[in-house]
Fold:
Amino acid sequence: QVQLVESGGGSVQPGGSLRLSCTASGYTYNRYCMAWFRQAPGKEREGVALIDSRARSGYANSMKGRVTISSDNAKKSLYLQMNSLKPEDTAIYSCAADFSRDYCTGWQSFSYWGQGTEVTVSS
Structure:
């Protein structure tokens, strides 16, 4: 059974940084597309960044230039380094994965989701 577990959320002041982690278990595939999504209070979930097993990455405009997605295949982990955080970045951040392909085609078709980790940006 595939499981995704996020960590690293918390409270930070505007301009601060956080590094989110997502650890995957229960699969043996070497191919994947994995992504970070976020959902702010009262808003729809939106994609933030994605990466495939060939280390090709993409970013949504909302946080582009302030976030970096990375993965560690040996640790089966996904990361999101977030810098220059703003109050509007306050949201639940979740990781998602699809292990049926080694490329990403956008923000759809993710089979597995984590529970999310909360990020609050406030002074």
Q: What stands out?
A: The mean pLDDT is 95. The chain has no helices and eleven strands. Residues 33 and 52 are 4 Å apart (CA to CA). The radius of gyration is 14 Å.
